[in-house]
């Protein structure tokens, strides 16, 4: 079930990126590239900005809803996975580091004369 949500989230996120990239940050967007700078064209290009704006908000809302629903799907998957990090029985006590043994320094003994 989570895989289905993951695929839907990726598709909606991709569509959202495409819709945002088509828009012009100054409001011209796709409609200005067709020559609809201030007048309404025969095909209704002026309404393109309205469509892009509504589709952005719709896709963003769908994306948030899918993310929240995927969280529910994760919790209700029925598979209990226990973390080994939280397992108290397998915790080992830290061992204090030991210093290596220092080799005995041999001094040359001078013969007594």
UniProtKB/TrEMBL annotation:
<dbReference type="GO" id="GO:0009306">
    <property type="term" value="P:protein secretion"/>
</dbReference>
<keyword id="KW-1133">Transmembrane helix</keyword>
<dbReference type="InterPro" id="IPR004692">
    <property type="entry name" value="SecG"/>
</dbReference>
<comment type="similarity">
    <text>Belongs to the SecG family.</text>
</comment>
<feature type="region of interest" description="Disordered">
    <location>
        <begin position="91"/>
        <end position="113"/>
    </location>
</feature>
<feature type="transmembrane region" description="Helical">
    <location>
        <begin position="55"/>
        <end position="74"/>
    </location>
</feature>
<dbReference type="GO" id="GO:0005886">
    <property type="term" value="C:plasma membrane"/>
</dbReference>
<dbReference type="Pfam" id="PF03840">
    <property type="entry name" value="SecG"/>
</dbReference>
<protein>
    <recommendedName>
        <fullName>Protein-export membrane protein SecG</fullName>
    </recommendedName>
</protein>
<dbReference type="GO" id="GO:0015450">
    <property type="term" value="F:protein-transporting ATPase activity"/>
</dbReference>
<keyword id="KW-0472">Membrane</keyword>
<dbReference type="GO" id="GO:0065002">
    <property type="term" value="P:intracellular protein transmembrane transport"/>
</dbReference>
<keyword id="KW-1003">Cell membrane</keyword>
<keyword id="KW-0653">Protein transport</keyword>
<keyword id="KW-0811">Translocation</keyword>
<dbReference type="GO" id="GO:0043952">
    <property type="term" value="P:protein transport by the Sec complex"/>
</dbReference>
<keyword id="KW-0812">Transmembrane</keyword>
<comment type="function">
    <text>Involved in protein export. Participates in an early event of protein translocation.</text>
</comment>
<keyword id="KW-0813">Transport</keyword>
């Amino acid at each position: 079930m989570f895989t289905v949500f993951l695929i839907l989230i990726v598709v909606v996120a991709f569509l959202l990126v495409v819709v945002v990239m088509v828009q012009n940050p100054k409001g011209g967007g796709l409609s200005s590239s067709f020559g609809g700078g201030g007048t309404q064209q025969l095909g209704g290009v002026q309404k393109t900005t309205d469509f892009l704006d509504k589709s952005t908000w719709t896709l963003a809302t769908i994306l948030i809803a899918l993310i929240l629903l995927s969280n529910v799907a994760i919790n209700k998957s029925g598979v209990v996975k226990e973390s080994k990090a939280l397992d108290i029985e397998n915790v080992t006590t830290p061992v204090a580091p030991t210093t290596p043994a220092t080799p005995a320094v041999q001094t040359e003994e001078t013969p007594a004369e």
